[in-house]
Design goal:
The chain is built from twelve helices and no strands. It is mainly α and 318 residues long. The chain has a domain of 219 residues.
């Protein structure tokens, strides 16, 4: 039965993914060139494919472990007679929220940011960016889904639901879709929302963490609208010096973290380098997103004061 369901799920996922590879990506290449965006280059596209393949290999190797851990906790589930519609709806909501939680942690704990940063390191933004995987995430991603197994969701269903929502998450990596109707933008993660997430503009940093539903970001205060006055700049706040090196693109943040841990500082400060947000430093030499945003907002406030003062002087002169 387990093997039969796994084969069925694989066929469904294949049905979802074929249009992306065979239709949507070639269409986006054509549209982006036609519109003058040119959001694809060969080197970045090959890097996205490479990172996806590395991630897929690790994922295949660890899939048995992930399934085994979830099966272990599944045996402690309460006996609940689920209606299929309620079962799949609650599984979707639970999985999507737990992804938001994982994503939030990945952005706010440097140890996990070292894993996730590869997904954000491309200065381009297109459908293949969605395949630019955080290659080591299979080592711990499944741990977030343990509560679902304890509640009573079958492990194979949990992994299937994650794969389905991940497919949706790939589709929003595009610049060729503008803002959608207001009610869709309020509920679902849209290309506009996810462009914000991948932008390195200071007001956009660490925002819009959702995979399918944007409601978690609205509830927990991590939502920001894409602003016409703030066109997204993709990639990292500090671009990589060797963006196409097959090893450094994966390990560059690990190398920087290792360098910080080797500093002659108390062990408590070393732990803070691991678990504080990216940009934290014991001497204040670097800034976290919160600090960067505070500096940016103060600069904006000063600019507004200067403009207000100029207008006041112009009125007085008249």
């Amino acid at each position: 039965m387990h093997t039969h369901m796994e084969q069925l799920y694989q066929q469904i996922l294949l049905l979802f993914s074929i249009p992306i590879y065979a239709v949507l990506i070639p269409l986006e290449v054509i549209l982006s060139n036609y519109n003058g965006r040119k959001c694809y280059t060969l080197r970045e596209t090959l890097m996205n494919i490479y990172l996806n393949l590395v991630n897929a290999c690790i994922d295949v190797l660890l899939r048995g472990l992930a399934l085994g851990v979830l099966i272990f906790f599944y045996q402690f589930r309460p006996e609940i007679s689920w209606h299929p519609l309620i079962y799949w709806t609650l599984l979707f909501l639970g999985e999507d929220f737990l992804f938001w939680l994982e994503h939030y942690v990945d952005h706010h704990v440097r140890l996990f940011w070292a894993v996730h940063v590869t997904h954000h390191s491309s200065p381009e933004y297109n459908l293949t960016t969605g395949f630019r995987s955080s290659v080591f995430m299979p080592f711990y991603r499944y741990l977030y889904f343990i509560p679902l197994a304890l509640i009573g969701f079958a492990p194979i269903d949990i992994l299937f639901m994650y794969a389905i929502t991940q497919t949706y998450g790939i589709l929003v990596h595009t610049q060729n879709v503008g803002k959608l109707p207001r009610w869709i933008e309020y509920i679902l993660v849209t290309p506009s929302h996810h462009r914000v997430h991948h932008a390195s503009n200071i007001p956009y940093l660490d925002k819009n963490m959702g995979m399918v539903l944007i409601i978690w970001d609205r509830i927990f205060g991590t939502f920001v609208e894409e602003m016409p006055s703030e066109r997204p700049r993709y990639g990292l706040t500090k671009p990589l010096s060797t963006p196409h090196h097959p090893v450094k693109v994966i390990f560059h943040e690990w190398a920087a973290l290792s360098k910080d841990l080797q500093k002659d500082i108390p062990w408590r400060a070393k732990l803070r380098y691991l678990f504080m947000p990216p940009g934290w430093s014991h001497d204040g030499s670097t800034q976290t997103t919160k600090e960067l945003r505070a500096t940016w907002e103060e600069e904006k406030r000063k600019q507004r004061e200067i403009r207000r003062s100029k207008r006041k002087k112009e009125v007085e002169c008249v």
